[in-house]
């Protein structure tokens, strides 16, 4: 039987419980998931690539069928390289859908054999984004309900002083 492999790309700056919720949902649909810390020249990140990979590896260590990798280039090229047939994308609101739909169509044009699957996080994490987690931490708010403990600690360290 063919193994079903998906990739879940993003900047993950930082990883949130919403991201982890989507990884768990993807695992119910696929045999393995590769979380791809993707380079996006349009985004200025708070955390280095190495830190973001470390956060993710720590957060997904309980899932043996999940691994974390870094990729600089087109997402569909990474999917082809690792033999994944599906790209997982999270959708929180209609504003996400417009961008994600455009990206999915572009990826389909570039790689017709690779599908995009949109997943919604649970209602507990629906409003959450990495940007909001950073803003809460910057204002000295409690982010422990939104991000893993390691990430919460590092966010507070970044915004001290």
Description:
The chain has 161 residues and is an alpha/beta fold. It has a single domain (5-126), classed as HUPs (Rossmann fold), CATH 3.40.50.620. It is 42% helix and 18% strand. The chain has helices at 17-27, 49-60, 75-82, 94-110, 130-138, 149-158, and strands at residues 5-10, 32-38, 66-71, 86-90, 115-119. The protein has a 5-stranded parallel sheet, sandwiched between helices. Strand 2, helix 2 and strand 3 form a beta-alpha-beta unit. The radius of gyration is 15 Å and the shape is globular. The mean pLDDT is 93.
Concise synopsis of the structure shown:
The chain is of the alpha/beta class. It has helices at 17-27, 49-60, 75-82, 94-110, 130-138, 149-158, and strands at 5-10, 32-38, 66-71, 86-90, 115-119.
Strand order of the largest sheet: 3-2-1-4-5
CATH class (first level) name: Alpha Beta
Amount of helix: 40-55%
Q: Which residues sit in consecutive blocks of at least 5 with pLDDT less than 50? A: none
SS-derived structural category? alpha/beta
Break the fold down into its secondary structure elements and pairings.
Layout: E1 5-10, H1 17-27, E2 32-38, H2 49-60, E3 66-71, H3 75-82, E4 86-90, H4 94-110, E5 115-119, H5 130-138, H6 149-158
Parallel strand pairs: 1-2, 1-4, 2-3, 4-5
């Amino acid at each position: 039987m063919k193994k079903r492999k998906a990739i879940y790309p993003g900047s993950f700056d930082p990883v949130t419980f919403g991201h982890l919720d989507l990884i768990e949902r993807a695992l119910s649909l696929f045999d393995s998931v590769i979380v791809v810390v993707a380079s996006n020249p349009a985004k200025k990140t708070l955390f280095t690539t190495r830190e973001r990979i470390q956060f993710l590896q720590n957060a997904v260590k309980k899932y043996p069928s999940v691994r974390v990798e870094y990729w600089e280039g087109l997402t569909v090229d990474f999917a082809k390289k690792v033999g994944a047939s599906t790209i997982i994308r999270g959708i929180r609101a209609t504003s996400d859908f417009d961008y994600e739909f455009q990206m999915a169509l572009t990826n389909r044009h570039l790689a017709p054999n690779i599908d995009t699957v949109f997943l919604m996080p649970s209602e507990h994490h629906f409003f959450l984004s990495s940007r909001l987690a950073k803003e809460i931490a910057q204002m000295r708010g409690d982010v422990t309900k939104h991000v893993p403990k390691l990430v919460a600690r590092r966010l507070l360290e970044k915004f001290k002083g």
